[in-house]
């Protein structure tokens, strides 16, 4: 199955790479787990859910995912990028080079610096008074302008297709934009929303920008992660943004990174998303690290309910991208696959999907042979049009 991909964007120095490293750090406990780093800026992170194993009183044998202390983790691809600075769309800085790569992602995490200690270029400033609201605006505008420039560079091609080859405007646009994970539906919606009818309208800068802005909004969900909540002015900035109705998830990427690294070295035990950790080897923690860990426990985990990193991933995938997680099993009584693995797999599938869609996702060949489904929790037979729920356990009966 194709793994979902999400990207990390933001200005320089906000903590994108720290977040990326925290998200993609492999867990040593899963040793030869196949989902290791793919390349230098593309790695594997996890979306989590409360696993069904405990309530069913089962010892599970995860195959496509991981289960730690009753929390199931589903792998997704995560991309890191260089920071975007003002005018990046014109080629300023390095960020621009990565936009075509990052735009292939289904959704984006926009990391902002809540401390106010860095300016729009990511430079540390003396007086920490940079308003993070500004970077929310300007980064989005850079991406909008970049999409507009892609369209502008292809305008002749689009015009030729529409005027001389009888191709529909949406199809011509889709040929240019499909590589950016933008669907024909997204394009049709945007044509509708902006009232754009003729290709010539795209020749006007304002129309082109409006079209691009609308397209970004309806094709690329973006979640804002407010980083560095451990810093002095961060809470104040967070509250102000919240009061202005801006959705920001407060996070501390560095805390998550430290907790994951110590867990990897078996010095502490921390389950991503948890609001506490357990010290396993106190003798390996020096005074300085001890103080850092206590600070993380009191000022981050207890205060904010976690580092916010897992919450960011989950909110993006479940709430913004509209996925649910479903366990397919072969045997609805034992909750196993053909090899006897208990609750082996969990699939991310779009909300509103049916039993038939699940069969299709697992294997197109399976889809052609499906008879009906069985809800393994109630043992009830369900139709192929049954709409799946988050955490359903489904068996598919075939001919
Ligand atoms: N205080 C604090 N510093 C952080 C946090 N996350 C990252 N940083 C620091 O911010 C700086 C920039 O981080 P980096 O990940 O390289 O940022 P990038 O340029 O956006 O990739 C580094 O000094 C990090 O240690 C955090 O949660 N809290
Ligand atoms: Mg970086």
Report on the structure:
The chain is of the alpha/beta class and 399 residues long. Among the domains are: 5-41 and 80-139 and 222-317, 3-Layer(aba) Sandwich (Rossmann fold), CATH 3.40.50.300; 324-398, Ubiquitin-like (UB roll). Helices cover 37% and strands 18% of the residues. The protein contains 13 helices and 14 strands. It has helices spanning 16-24, 95-102, 132-153, 155-164, 169-177, 184-194, 205-219, 234-243, 253-264, 287-304, 309-320, 355-362, 364-367; strands at 5-9, 42-50, 66-68, 71-79, 107-113, 222-227, 249-250, 268-269, 278-279, 323-329, 347-350, 370-375, 380-382, 393-398. Strands 1, 2, 3, 4, 5, 6 and 7 form a seven-stranded mixed β-sheet that branches. Helix 4 runs antiparallel to helix 5 and helix 5 crosses helix 6. It is flat, with a radius of gyration of 23 Å. 41% of the residues are buried. Magnesium ion is lined by residues 16-17.
What is the CATH level 1 assignment of the domain at 5-41 and 80-139 and 222-317? Alpha Beta
**CATH topology (level 3) name of the domain at 5-41 and 80-139 and 222-317:** Rossmann fold
- Please state roughly what percent of the residues sit in beta strands, choosing from under 5%, 5-15%, 15-25%, 25-35%, 35-45% or over 45%: 15-25%
Shape assignment:
flat
Query: Which ions, cofactors or small ligands are bound in this entry?
Result: guanosine-5'-diphosphate, magnesium ion
What percentage of residues falls in helices of 4 or more residues? 25-40%
Low-confidence stretches: 27-38
CATH architecture of the domain at 5-41 and 80-139 and 222-317: 3-Layer(aba) Sandwich
Please give the radius of gyration in angstroms. 23 Å
Distance between the termini: 23 Å
């Amino acid at each position: 199955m194709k793994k979902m991909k999400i990207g990390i964007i933001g200005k320089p120095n906000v903590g994108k790479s720290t977040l990326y490293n925290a998200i993609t750090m492999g867990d040593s406990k899963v040793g030869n787990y196949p989902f290791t780093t793919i390349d230098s800026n593309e790695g594997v992170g996890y979306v989590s859910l409360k696993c069904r194993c405990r309530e069913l009183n089962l010892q599970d044998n995860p195959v496509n995912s991981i289960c730690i202390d009753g929390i199931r983790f589903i792998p997704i691809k995560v991309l890191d990028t260089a920071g975007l600075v003002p005018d990046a769309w014109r080629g300023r800085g390095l960020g621009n080079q990565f936009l075509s790569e990052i735009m292939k992602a289904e959704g984006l995490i926009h990391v902002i610096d809540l401390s106010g200690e860095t300016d729009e270029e990511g430079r540390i400033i003396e007086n920490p008074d940079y308003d993070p609201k500004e970077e929310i605006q300007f980064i989005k505008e850079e991406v909008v302008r970049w999409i507009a420039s892609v369209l502008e560079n292809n305008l002749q091609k689009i015009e030729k297709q529409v005027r001389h080859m009888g191709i529909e405007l949406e199809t011509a646009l889709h040929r240019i934009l499909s590589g950016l994970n933008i669907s024909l539906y997204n394009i049709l919606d945007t044509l509708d929303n902006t009232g754009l009818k003729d290709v010539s309208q795209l020749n006007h800068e304002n129309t082109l920008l409006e079209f691009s802005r609308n397209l970004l909004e309806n094709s690329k969900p973006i979640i804002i992660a407010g980083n560095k909540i451990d810093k002095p002015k961060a809470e104040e900035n967070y509250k102000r943004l919240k009061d202005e109705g801006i959705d920001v998830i407060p996070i501390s990427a560095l805390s998550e990174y430290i907790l994951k690294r110590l867990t990897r070295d078996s010095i502490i035990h921390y389950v991503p998303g948890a609001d506490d950790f357990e010290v396993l080897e106190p003798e390996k923690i020096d005074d300085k690290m001890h103080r850092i860990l206590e600070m993380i426990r009191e000022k981050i985990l207890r205060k904010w309910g976690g580092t916010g990193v897992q919450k960011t991933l989950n909110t993006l995938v479940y709430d913004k991208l509209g996925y649910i997680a479903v366990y397919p099993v072969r045997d609805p009584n034992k909750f196993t696959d053909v090899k006897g693995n208990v609750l082996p797999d969990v699939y991310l599938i779009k909300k509103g999907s049916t039993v038939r869609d699940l069969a299709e996702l697992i294997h197109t060949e399976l889809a052609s042979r499906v008879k009906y489904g069985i809800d393994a929790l109630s043992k009830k037979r369900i139709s192929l049009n049954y709409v799946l729920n988050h955490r359903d356990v489904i068996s598919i009966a075939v001919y």
